[in-house]
Design brief:
Layout lengths: L1 H16 L26 H13 L6 H4 L3 E2 L21 H23 L2 H22 L23 H20 L20 H17 L10 H10 L8 E3 L31 E2 L1 H6 L15 H4 L50 E4 L1 H14 L3 H18 L4 H13 L2 H4 L3 H15 L5 H8 L4 H4 L30 H11 L4 H6 L8
Antiparallel strand pairs: 1-3, 2-4
Helix pairs in contact: 1-4, 2-4, 2-5, 4-5, 5-6, 5-7, 6-7, 7-8, 7-11, 8-11, 11-12, 11-15, 12-15
């Protein structure tokens, strides 16, 4: 894998210059030893890498504060803006995706088509669909039809597609990707030059990734009436990941440069010598509570994953977290007690998700099984939902290295606490499913989608889920606990250049307005 990283800067430069769109300027005086068009097999590594680092990471960093995974120690300063919902047009996920990531995906598609290599077309369309999904789930309307096509210049004032249109395009891209992966007439292996750093050329896993994403985005439509189709979601999930070891994730490297380490561990988390100044100092008490109480009944039971995700406090070996918006001075969960650094296990380097080599998953086998569980529960198949739920939970535990004995004890505790009976009630069943998805999707922006679909309900997530303290009262009503953050503000560059398409980009409108899939 190390050999591929030396190529990434080349791909980014090529992308930024849009080399494939400049053929008319390059068709004379060509050097046969310096080809002007690189082959598709050398572009896959760039598409995967930028989908992870430029898009997903940039779209996850602040969302980890919104979803209350982690909290800063400071009571003032920019580090606490995300968890107190202070967002402006300087949030740069949009720019990263459109400038750095998605041109790689489009070029991969175009080159694969020109070469007669449908598997590269499938990989490009799968990654492009994933990027569109991550973008639209934060902004709503985005640019799709009027975006870069691999041959023409990018338009500076493109037309926007509605979110409903975007979802149709995502599903279409994934259907086309599956068809491409099914095509046996491929000339070059996906891993021909070592560029498939995710699946090492395993086409079946790529195909199952496309199906898994189809299940994810179809499942988002739970409030859209007839557009929500449980049968199709279940079909997609069952054609998706079906075993451990299929997760689509970016594996970071040991002993590499800092930018090749997991960003939650290093530069991306704005870490420092003094952990109090890190963007994220500790995990939240909300997350700790989810790992120490069973759903519905709130029975005390310590999830064995807590020791794989978090470190206990050096002072006394206990697990505790901060209240969003209060910082270290607020103490455990805002109690005012335990205000020393040593009273908390630090966020950085604390476990499976925040070590230097921790993988960063796009979508996992566990998520797919929990999606299947939700779809079956909504279809009235409580027994089938429970079976899928059990596998989703156990798959995540296996991934985190939980022992068989611990897994069996945890499941026995859930059964003794009434989980089977809980699944006969949709709200209670959803409480189990969504709390498990929160745990299994740790730090993934997909969690924000679930929390919005569930209306940030305490019936679903438990009594510890509350709006942050010191909330942004310029936008949000301090006296209305039902008012939660719903979307992101478009970036300044897009606002200034293409304001007619964006419309009202004020924080009050953008942060408060539910997205299309979140409205009945």
């Amino acid at each position: 894998m190390k050999i591929t990283y030396s190529k990434i800067k080349l791909f980014l430069v090529a992308t930024l210059l849009f080399s494939t769109s400049c053929e008319s300027y390059l068709d004379i005086n060509e050097d046969p030893n310096l080809p002007t068009i690189v082959p598709a097999h050398t572009r896959l590594v760039g598409a995967i890498t930028t989908t992870n680092g430029a898009s997903m990471w940039r779209g996850s960093r602040e969302v980890a504060g919104i979803t209350q995974y982690a909290s800063t120690a400071l009571t003032t300063g920019s580090n606490r803006n995300a968890e107190t919902w202070r967002f402006t047009a300087s949030y740069f996920f949009w720019q990263n995706a459109y400038v750095f990531t998605m041109p790689n995906c489009v070029d991969l598609i175009v080159l694969g088509e020109k070469e007669g290599n449908p598997h590269f077309v499938g990989a490009g369309k799968t990654l492009l669909a994933l990027n569109y999904g991550m973008l639209t789930d934060q902004y709503g309307a985005i640019v799709v039809d009027d975006y870069y096509d691999g041959t023409s210049q990018i338009k500076l004032t493109p037309k926007f597609n509605t979110q409903e249109e975007v979802y149709q395009k995502i599903d279409q891209l994934l259907d086309e990707a599956i068809e491409a992966f099914n095509n046996p007439n491929n000339k070059v292996s996906l891993n021909f030059s070592g560029g498939d750093i995710m699946y090492q050329g395993n086409v079946d896993k790529w195909r199952r990734l496309a199906w898994s994403l189809k299940a994810r985005y179809a499942n988002h439509l739970s409030k859209k009436g007839s557009l929500y189709n449980s049968a199709k979601i279940i079909e997609a999930a069952q054609n998706g990941f079906n075993a451990d070891g299929m997760d689509a994730e970016f594996a970071y490297m040991a002993g590499a440069q800092q930018t090749d380490e997991n960003p939650w561990y290093s530069w991306g988390g704005f870490t420092s010598v003094d952990p109090v100044n890190d963007r994220y100092f500790a995990w939240t008490q909300f997350f700790v509570d989810l790992l120490q109480n069973l759903p519905v009944t709130e029975t005390d039971y310590q999830d064995p994953r807590i020791s794989r995700i978090m470190n206990p406090a050096p002072s006394d070996g206990q697990y505790r977290g901060l209240r969003s918006g209060l910082g270290l001075a607020g103490g455990q969960g805002g109690s005012g007690k335990f205000t020393s650094v040593s009273d908390y296990g630090l966020f950085k380097n604390s476990g499976y998700y925040t070590k230097a080599t921790s993988p960063f998953p796009f979508i996992t086998y566990s998520e797919v099984k929990l999606i299947e569980a939700e779809a079956k529960l909504r279809s009235g198949d409580a027994a089938g939902a429970l079976v899928a739920f059990e596998e989703g939970v156990k798959a995540n535990m296996r991934k985190l290295g939980v022992t068989s004995a611990e897994i069996n004890a945890y499941w026995a505790a859930l059964l003794a606490d009434g989980v089977a009976a809980h699944f006969s009630n949709q709200t209670r069943g959803l409480s189990h499913i969504m709390r498990q998805k929160y745990i299994t999707q740790c730090l993934n922006p997909e969690t924000w989608v679930d929390m919005r679909r569930m209306d940030f309900s305490q019936e679903i997530y438990g009594p510890s889920l509350k709006r942050p303290e010191n909330i942004n009262t310029v936008v949000f009503n301090a006296n209305d606990p039902s008012q939660w953050i719903q979307g992101m503000v478009y970036e300044t560059n897009e606002q200034n250049r293409n304001g007619e398409q964006i419309g009202d980009n004020s924080e009050r409108y953008r942060l408060l307005t539910p997205l299309w899939w979140n409205r009945p």
